[in-house]
Design a protein that fits this description.
Helix content: 55-70%
Subcellular location: Cell membrane
Main location: membrane
Radius of gyration: 36 Å
Keywords: Membrane, Transmembrane, Transmembrane helix
Shape: elongated
Protein name: Multidrug ABC transporter permease
Order of helices and strands: HHHHHHHHEEEHEEHEEHHHEHEHEHEEHH
InterPro entries: ABC1_TM_dom, ABC1_TM_sf, ABC_transporter-like_ATP-bd, ABC_transporter-like_CS, P-loop_NTPase, Type_1_exporter
Oligomer: single chain
Strand content: 5-15%
Amino acid sequence: MYGIIHVLAQALIPAAVGKAIDAGIIAGDQRALLLWGGAVVTLGVIQAAAGILRDRAALTTRLGAAYRTAQHITRQAARLGAALPKRVAKGEIVNAGVADIGRLGEALAETARCSGAVVAIAVVAAILLDTSWQLGLLVLLGVPLMVGAVSLLIRPLHRRQQRLREQQAELTGRAVDIVSGLRVLRGVGGEEVFAHRYRADSQRVRAAGVAVARVEALFEAAKVLLPGLLTTAVVWLGAHYVATGRMGAGQLVAFYGYAVYLADPLRRLTAAAGRLTQGHVAARRITAFLALRPEFATGAADPVGCGGLGSLARPVLREGPASLVRPVGYEGPGSLARPVPYEGHAPFADPAAYEGHAPFARPVPYESPAPLADPASGLTVAPGRFTAVACASPADAAVLAARLGRYTGSAATLGDTPLGDLPPDEVRRRILVADNDDHLFAGPLREELRGRGDDTELERAIDAACARDIVEALPDGLDDLVAESGRNFSGGQRQRLRLVRALMADPEVLILVEPTSAVDAHTEARIARGVSALRTGRTTLVFTTSPVVLDRADHVVYVDAAKAVAQGSHGELLTDVRYRAVVAREEAA
């Protein structure tokens, strides 16, 4: 609305100037001169005020659209959760959250100026038709022809911008991967290989950018040339009419003013076409991201081959060694009501014995602990126990953790209830999966680790994760700031800090994936004792091939080819040549 008022006031100024010349100056009427001069001043004030309000509204629209779109992108990223990196490249999210939202906001803001330009052209054409039908017809025919000529460039521009946008997303994703894995690349000597790939991708993006620039150069030239030709034609025809006596001097001034004025809305109209094209490309990418759905619905259907929901009440029994006659992790139906007695090391009954640190408060057991089971693999995690799983392949650990944490569709159950039948929030509250891909966020270390707990609990978790030396080395201790992604810490330090955060969450079931892979054996042993003591009474499942952690566990399960093939204590499983080979490989490493 403000844009329309602004251009209407601006469009009427040449007419008021022409009337002031003809009716005031040439006719010698001082009153008419003052009247039309006052009209010019009034129109100028209205134009200025409406222009300010229009720009304010356009800025509000641009920023509002950008920030609201950013909120939707953030919510969608959180909703997709663990499925996000599988479905979308990192560079795609970065571009959508930075470049695309800006282009979308600019496109929406341009609609105010575009609508004003359309109204301005229509008003000027009506005035010219009223004064001279030839001039009015020239404008009415010239503007569509100009817009049609410009539109011929929009389609190829749209295609090339789309191609450039996709290649930019791929290049950004590669850059993110290189930066996040720079230490690993240096360790394996892969810097040159990835640098060569990045240079090649960068050159492809440059070529795509040059292709876009060629069309944009023609587009920008057309934006200046075509309105200029139309303006020249209007001025020439108006001057011809004055020379032949068909117009007065004031009308000539007015027509010249219209000709000059038309250049601005015509440029705005062609510029809006380019902005709207960019906004359309960005909107398509954003809506494609927002249209993604999680890998599984809230109420998951029975997976094919599981035999119906009733089959999910118990794990599938496998034929094989004697150790597999019963479901992995418990001794029979009666064992579900209580943890299975540990057949090996004495339980860590006295938490105060943990290497001189402050004693751990014994957690109160949950009123109704339930076993966590994955029928597809035959793995069952008994409630209230420290269970370790040694996988022959690291990929099996990731797959099993995703199933048990309901980060992918599966037939996993908690007690007699399929995880797919539980609300996602309930699953996240009761089961926490922590692996080495988890991020440390920037901010005070205390706030990053503490969560909803208190400082006393935080101190205990720090001791359990053997992270006391990390905190004491910081200038401000727990009040020190964490850099982006925890880059001010080493890999082993980040791993222990992530473990502290996971322990502070205190879930009913804590699933840890290789929580000690980046620390030395002495630290590993202290972490195993500390976590075992702190999680007394809680269900803890650790995927690891470390003999130090496996020796501390109440129960150990060996998984090969995504199937549980043996179980028992660490000492008992060492008689299995397959298990011994995996553990020996870890010891040799």
